[in-house]
Write a structure and sequence with these properties.
This protein is an alpha/beta fold. It contains 15 helices and twelve strands. It starts with a strand and ends in a 10-residue tail after the last helix.
Length: 327
């Protein structure tokens, strides 16, 4: 079997699951960002395509790979893959559903704590010799503990469920909203209570985004959404940057409509210094806490993901339907 990989060879070497299909496959690598024609020149006849989670897989690429039987995201995201083209050509599209849930849930809580404890500003104060000044200011202002906060999970997939489990240990009141309400047994198992979207947005101290990007959700965190939040509430995004209207959020931070924003993902990627959520006034920068989209890229995540991918490749080789199909 010939397998084309768009992504880092280093990761495939490091997280090698050492199963038979990998040892016997012909593997062709193309760096993320390689033009489609160059990708085709290297691996036009591949039967399986493994793609870096943020790499686009275009209709042009799909239509010019006649032997292609499966496209597999290296991560959970698959919004860069042309699903319509894949479906038209009878090609499976799969992802690594759930492989990063625990890692991203941990990172979500890390971002919440970073906002509450002014992590970035605090480090700057210490290294610049202003430790006591900042400490005294924060004592006067009052530091809120996570246990005192109500957390609203917007979406209730694998990551939100993992976050709910972890937030319970802090003693938070945890609420959720989703396309449909879960049954009582599920709510009890995860320690969550249901709220309608507007009630969740308007009452919780943290709004944490855990929904996928689709035509209905793209840019959903707009001026109307933000106007429903409490002025002391904070927004956390470990899902996808495309959920957020950057300029509307910038205005909400500058005007004080919300108290803070933390994100592991800002659109578009790679994030540039002139992004509206990066080029903020100095005082507003104290209200944000960013990380470079590393919430789900732990060693454990990649070990689970690469095993899933190669096991699905083995299924394709054996004529068996792969698991974790996204359409």
């Amino acid at each position: 079997m010939k397998i084309l990989v768009i992504g880092s060879r280093d990761r495939y070497d490091k997280y090698d699951p050492a199963i038979a299909i990998k040892k016997n496959a012909e593997i062709i690598f193309a760096d993320r960002g390689t033009p489609d024609d160059a990708v085709l020149a290297a691996g036009k006849d591949a039967e399986v395509l493994f793609a870096d989670a943020i790499s686009p897989v275009s209709r042009y690429l799909i239509e010019n790979m006649p032997a292609l039987r499966m496209i597999h995201s290296e991560g959970v995201a698959y919004n860069g893959i042309d699903l319509a083209a894949a479906e038209e050509h009878g090609i499976y599209v799969c992802n690594n559903k759930g492989c990063n849930a625990g890692a991203v849930a941990e990172h979500t809580i890390f971002l919440m704590m970073g906002l509450l404890r002014n992590a970035v500003e605090g480090q700057e104060a210490v290294v610049s010799g202003r430790q006591i000044k900042m400490k005294e200011r924060r004592m006067a202002e009052g530091i809120i503990e996570l246990s005192e906060c109500s957390v609203g999970l917007y979406g209730f997939g694998d990551i939100a469920k993992a976050a709910a489990k972890r937030l319970a240990s802090f003693g938070c009141s945890v609420y959720y909203t989703a396309r449909s309400r879960r049954d009582e047994k599920t709510e009890k198992a995860y320690g969550v209570s249901w709220l309608e979207p507007d009630e969740l947005i308007g009452t919780c101290d943290f709004i944490s985004l855990h929904t996928d990007v689709n035509p209905e959700t793209k840019g959903m965190v707009d001026a109307a959404f933000l106007s429903k939040m409490k002025p002391e509430a904070m927004l956390v995004n470990t899902s996808r940057g495309e959920l957020v209207d950057n300029r509307a959020l910038r205005e909400a931070l500058i005007s004080g409509k919300i108290a803070g924003f933390a994100a592991d993902t800002i659109a578009p990627e790679p994030v540039t210094a002139d992004n509206p959520l990066v080029a903020l006034p100095a005082e507003v920068m104290k209200k944000v806490f960013y990380s470079p989209h590393l919430g789900g890229i732990t060693a454990g995540t990649f070990k689970r993901a690469h095993r899933m991918m190669w096991e699905n490749a083995a299924r394709i080789a054996e004529g068996i339907e792969p698991v974790n199909q996204v359409h």
